[in-house]
Design a protein that fits this description.
Strand content: under 5%
Strand order of the largest sheet: 1-2
Radius of gyration: 21 Å
C-alpha cells in the first residue's frame, strides 16, 4: 500500500487523490467525497476560466500601449476597463494576435470604423467590430488559430515567463477532460446525443469526433443541462458564451468538406430559426 502521507515530490494533487481513490482500504464515503472533489477540480467550468484569467493578465499588460494608440480618448479607455465585455474584447484581440494580425493596427481599424460617441458600451461595440475583422482573416488565409475543444485559444505570445508552465499544464488538463467527456457521452448516450449523431452522421469520423468534443466541452463549460446539444441561445450580455455558441452552431449547421470554404460571417450569432434547425435535427 503506498504511503499517502509522504507522496513522491513529483506527484501532483491529482496523482495523490487518484492513489487514494484506488486504495480499497479507504471507506466508501471517503471515496465518494474525494471522487467528487477530483471531478470538481478538473471540470471545464473551473479550468477554462483559470486559463483565460492567466492569458488575460498577460494580454492586458501587452496590449496597454495598443489601446493608448488606438484613437480612443481617455474616458473611453477608462470605460473599457469597467465593461463586462472587456474580457471578451481581450480574448478576440488574442485570437487576432494568434493569426498574425497586429493588435495596434486591429484596434485602430476597429475604432476608426465609425464614431463611438453614442455607444452605450464601448467595449461591446469594439468587440463586435474586432470579431468581424478577425473572422475575415481565416477565410482569406485558409487558417485558424489554435483552439482547444472549440473553447480555449492556445497560449500565444505570452510575455510573462512565469505563466507559461501553468498555462501549458491547464491546456493539457482541459484536453484530457474533453477526451473523457466525449468518451462518457458515447458510453452514456444522454438525451441530446442521438439528435447530435444524426446531424453529423454524413461527416468523416474524425470530423464527428471533433464536433462531439466541442459540444461536450461547451456543455460543461457553460453548465448546459438542456436535452438539445447546445441549449438555448445565450443572453445578449453573455458576450464570450455567445461567441462560442455562434462558432459551434455555425460549424454544426454549415460544415463543408473543404475547411477553407467557411464564409467570413461564420462568427455571427445565429438567428432563432437557425437554433431551431440545430435542435430539430
Amino acid at each position: 500500500t503506498p504511503d499517502l502521507h509522504e507522496p513522491h515530490p513529483e506527484q501532483t494533487l491529482q496523482d495523490v487523490l487518484e492513489t487514494v481513490l484506488n486504495n480499497p482500504g479507504v471507506e466508501l464515503s471517503a471515496h465518494e467525497v474525494m471522487r467528487q472533489e477530483l471531478d470538481d477540480a478538473t471540470r471545464l467550468d473551473r479550468l477554462v476560466p483559470i486559463h483565460e484569467h492567466l492569458c488575460q493578465l498577460d494580454a492586458r499588460a501587452r496590449y496597454r500601449s495598443a489601446f493608448a494608440q488606438s484613437g480612443l480618448d481617455t474616458a473611453d479607455q477608462a470605460a473599457l476597463l469597467a465593461s463586462p465585455a472587456y474580457g471578451a474584447l481581450i480574448a478576440e484581440l488574442r485570437r487576432g494576435d494568434a493569426l498574425g494580425i497586429g493588435v495596434p493596427d486591429l484596434l485602430r481599424r476597429a475604432v476608426a470604423q465609425s464614431s463611438l460617441s453614442n455607444a452605450q458600451d464601448v467595449a461591446a461595440v469594439l468587440h463586435a467590430r474586432v470579431e468581424r475583422l478577425v473572422s475575415r482573416t481565416p477565410f482569406r488565409r485558409g487558417q485558424q488559430p489554435p483552439l482547444i475543444a472549440g473553447l480555449v485559444w492556445s497560449a500565444h505570445g505570452i510575455a510573462d515567463p512565469t505563466l507559461l508552465a501553468p498555462l501549458k499544464e491547464l491546456e493539457t488538463q482541459i484536453s484530457q477532460r474533453v477526451d473523457w467527456l466525449a468518451d462518457k457521452a458515447v458510453h452514456d448516450r444522454p438525451r441530446w446525443y442521438d439528435a447530435f449523431t444524426r446531424l453529423v452522421e454524413d461527416r468523416p469520423g474524425a470530423i464527428q469526433a471533433n464536433h462531439l468534443r466541442a459540444v461536450v466541452a461547451y456543455r460543461e463549460r457553460y453548465r448546459i443541462t438542456s436535452p438539445t446539444a447546445l441549449g438555448d441561445a445565450p443572453r445578449q450580455s453573455s458576450v464570450t458564451q455567445r461567441a462560442h455558441y455562434a462558432r459551434l452552431t455555425s460549424s454544426l449547421v454549415s460544415w463543408r468538406p473543404d475547411p477553407d470554404s467557411f464564409p467570413p460571417q461564420a462568427e455571427q450569432v445565429p438567428s432563432a430559426g437557425t437554433q431551431r434547425q440545430v435542435e430539430s435535427r
